């Protein structure tokens, strides 16, 4: 088996370029290009394709196939539906498969987890890494043990409010790095548990806020002697507020329907009259401007709820609709606000009716 024994000048120059990119964009520092000849070697298939080998169980084993077929196979196997989906890849290799994956899903985030620092060195020597290293969508995490993986995943995914991911090991990685692969499986299982636990907590929090028993007390305080409202020269009249809600709640429901139509148009339902839908929503926006009195109640009573509303329901944008991602996100944000107003008005109406009855006694 013919392994490379020395580096060409072009490869040394490539190493310098890639190490700068690794340091700048991925915070990975490489001090030298020397590989451990007892554990790692490289076979050059062509000027643009090399294969790393590692010494595993008393023999040299390639991390991928010489014909490169596993690169296309790996990319073809990954089927994404939404642009919010994160791709977790075990194994950086030379980066060929990461580049192909990034080209297939340019709007999706890719987290590459690599346990062998020598492989990163080989990639720096022989890989064309600029496109993937400089992309804001690609991140590389190096780990030695399961605790490292836990930290990487916690840092990458934050508080796990909205996480959808697909994980896959590249080519021969799961066999060559069996222990590390098992660690990754364990860490991902823990992540899934954390995601579900956090999701349930956020749902409960949003429900508690929306259905809180202190809602009537807050409205009482507002209608009686709120200093904030006095400074703004706002006086709450419960009957007027109730009347306004009755008028505008139907408009809010129309707005929800209109926004759903706009969303449907952007994701491919072309049977909708888009100009008419936009014009109608603009008219609704004008008509649903809330009075300072109602805004005061909604802002104080429900301000937390808007942050937690539908935390369990991620805004899902199809990969095929990624060219409309900005417009879709804007529509979904407005839809979220309109749904918030609809639920908020319903709850406030119930409490105001109770208060009015109490005042009439």
Walk me through the structure.
This protein is α/β, with parallel strands linked by helices and 361 residues long. It is built from 15 helices and seven strands. It starts with 8 loop residues before the first helix and ends with a helix. Residues 225-229 and 307-313 have low confidence and may be disordered. It comes from Clostridium coskatii. This is DUF115 domain-containing protein. Keywords: Coiled coil. Residues 178-208 form a coiled coil.
Structural class: alpha/beta
State mean pLDDT (0 to 100 scale). 81
Q: Under the CATH scheme, which class of the largest domain?
A: Alpha Beta
| CATH-level-2 architecture of the largest domain | 3-Layer(aba) Sandwich
Neighbour order of strands in the largest sheet? 6-5-4-7
Task: Give a summary of the structure in a few sentences.
By secondary structure, this protein is α/β, with parallel strands linked by helices. The protein contains 15 helices and 7 strands. It folds into 2 domains: 191 residues, Rossmann fold (3-Layer(aba) Sandwich); 150 residues, no CATH class.
């Amino acid at each position: 088996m013919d392994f490379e024994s020395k580096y060409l000048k072009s490869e040394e120059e490539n190493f310098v370029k890639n190490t700068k990119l690794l340091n700048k964009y991925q915070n990975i520092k490489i001090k030298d290009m020397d590989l451990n000849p007892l554990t790692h070697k490289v076979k050059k298939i062509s000027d643009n394709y090399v294969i790393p080998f590692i010494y595993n169980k008393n023999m040299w084993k390639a991390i991928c196939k010489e014909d490169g077929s596993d690169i296309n196979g790996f990319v073809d196997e990954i089927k994404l539906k939404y642009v919010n989906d994160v791709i977790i890849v075990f194994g950086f290799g030379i980066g060929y498969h990461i580049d192909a994956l990034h080209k297939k899903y340019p709007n999706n985030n890719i987290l590459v987890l690599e346990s062998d620092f020598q492989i990163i060195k080989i990639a720096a020597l022989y890989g064309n890494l600029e496109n993937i290293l400089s992309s804001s969508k690609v991140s590389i995490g190096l780990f030695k043990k399961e605790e490292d993986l836990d930290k990487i995943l916690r840092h990458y995914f934050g508080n796990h409010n909205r996480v959808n991911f697909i994980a896959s090991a590249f080519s021969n990685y799961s066999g060559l790095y069996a222990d590390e692969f098992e660690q990754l499986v364990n860490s991902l299982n823990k992540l899934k548990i954390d995601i579900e636990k956090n999701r349930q907590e956020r749902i409960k929090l949003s429900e508690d806020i929306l259905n809180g028993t202190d809602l009537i007390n807050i409205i009482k305080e507002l209608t009686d002697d709120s200093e904030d409202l006095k400074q703004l020269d706002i006086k709450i009249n419960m009957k007027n507020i109730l009347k306004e809600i009755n008028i505008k709640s139907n408009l809010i429901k129309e707005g929800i329907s209109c926004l759903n139509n706009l969303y449907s148009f952007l994701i491919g339902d072309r049977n909708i009259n888009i100009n008419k839908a936009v014009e109608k929503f603009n008219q609704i926006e004008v008509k649903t401007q809330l009075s300072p009195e109602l805004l005061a109640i909604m802002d104080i009573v429900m301000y937390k709820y808007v942050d937690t509303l539908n935390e369990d329901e991620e805004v899902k944008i199809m990969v095929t609709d990624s060219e409309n991602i900005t417009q879709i996100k804007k529509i979904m944000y407005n839809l979220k606000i309109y749904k918030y107003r609809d639920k908020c008005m319903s709850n406030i109406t119930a409490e105001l009716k109770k208060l009015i009855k109490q005042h009439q006694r």
